[in-house]
Structures are given as C-alpha cells and as structure tokens.
Amino acid sequence: MYEDGVDGDTLREVLTQACKRIDLGAAVMPKALFYPDVDELPLDGEGSSALREGVAPEDLVPTSTMRSNRYSRTLHHEFNALVVEHHLKWAPLCVAEPGPLPDGTPCQRLGKYDFHHADAIVDWGIRHGMKIKGHVLCWHVTSPNSILETMPSEEVEEQLRRHIFTTMGHFRGRIKVWDVVNEALAPDGSLADNIYLRKIGPSYIEMCFRWAHEADPDATLLYNDNKVEAMGGPNKA
User: With DSSP H G I counted as helix, E B as strand and the rest as coil, what are the percentages for the chain, rounded to 5?
Assistant: First the structure.
C-alpha cells in the first residue's frame, strides 16, 4: 500500500515476486534526494533562496534521521537500484564541483577530487538496501577535455588510468557495478571521434576495462550506450 493510502503493490514489491532478480533503477541528484519539498520551504530567507536555485550546500551530511521528502520516499518504495546521475563523472568530480581555488582562480587540477555529493547519494542507497551502479568512468562528453587536449598521448593515458583507480578505489565495496566506458560508438556503428580515440587509439576501450578490473576485481563491469540499436548502420545487424 502507498503512503497516501492507495491500495496496490509498489514497483519494488512487484519485483520481489519475479522468478529472478530484476533491478529497477533511477538516476539521482542530491538536491532532489535530500532537500525539502518546495511547498515545505519558507517563502523568503537566504536558506530557501539557495535551495530553490538548486545550490547544494557543502555542509550537507545526510544521516538516517534526516526528514525524507516525497522524492526520496518514492525512490525508496518504487526502486531497488540507483545511479548517481551526474556527480561521479570525471569533470564534475575534479573540475566543476570543487569550485575555485582559495585565491579565486578556477580549479584546473585533475587530482583534486570531491566525492562529497556522490558519497551522500551512495550511502543513502546502501542504507535503504538499494543496488548502486557507478556511472561513468570514461565518457568523452564529461571528461576534462580542455585540460586533456593539452597533454601528450602518454599523459592522457596515465591520467585516465589514474582516474579509474582513484574513483573505483574510493567506492570499493560500496559500488559493485560500474559503467566503464560510455557512448564510444557513432550512430553508424564505428568508433566515435573523441579525445580518447585521437590521443590513445581504439585500444582505450580495452585499457579502461583492464584498469577497472585491476582496481576492483570483484566489480561487474559494463559498457553503456544508447540510440545506436535504432540507427541504420552496420551495428543494426
């Protein structure tokens, strides 16, 4: 039964009746998960302004005693798995999310990782018995391309390897399924022209999977893509 009194099994309850495990997941952002519903916020004040604009305060430390909102209750009741929507991608982890350096200059350091928001989502999912999928270790769209473009091929390869080991090592034992490479195919079935293909070559895909397995031998490793099956290229066969 739903919290509003409506009869019927939740999706999560239906899944438990299947003959084999089925994971039904949702992509999650921290603001939707942790902050009050809009109709519960005051109409004025600095706190409400920040929340309405989608700002994720750095002092967010979710606990099991935090008040839930409608989104988090629906996620818990209807789904048995989740994906961190944005905050596990390379550029958000190392460029966008950490913010400016103390002197006000933009952060351009590939080694400055900020797992603050990703940790909060992952730990919430684990507390609620949900399966977590890490998304994504290598995707040219959300890589720090402006920095990688200035590096020689050997350095790009080393930075990619380092990123995979750093990210998977941080979540080892908590995230057991990873999208290793994302959208490496063009619509015609060929390899997409991206920074990794240009700098490293086609072997970058295999390299990523090898590094991911070394970083966490127990993890399930996936290749993720979309749209290509419906296109008319050679991949359609």
Answer: 40, 10, 45
What are the Cα distances from residue 57, in Å, to 39, 50, 54, 98, 117?
20, 8, 9, 12, 10
Rounded to the nearest integer, the mean pLDDT of the chain is 82
CA distance 175 to 168: 8
156-204 per-position pLDDT tens digit: 999 999 999 999 999 999 999 999 999 999 988 899 999 999 999 999 9
pTM as predicted: 0.79
CB 181 within 8 A of CB 163: no
Residue 231 burial by Cβ neighbours in a 10 Å radius (0-12, 13-18, 19+): middle
Instruction: Kindly write down the DSSP assignment for every residue of 43-83, as one continuous string.
Output: SSSHHHHHHHTT---TT----TTSPP-HHHHHHHHH-SEEE
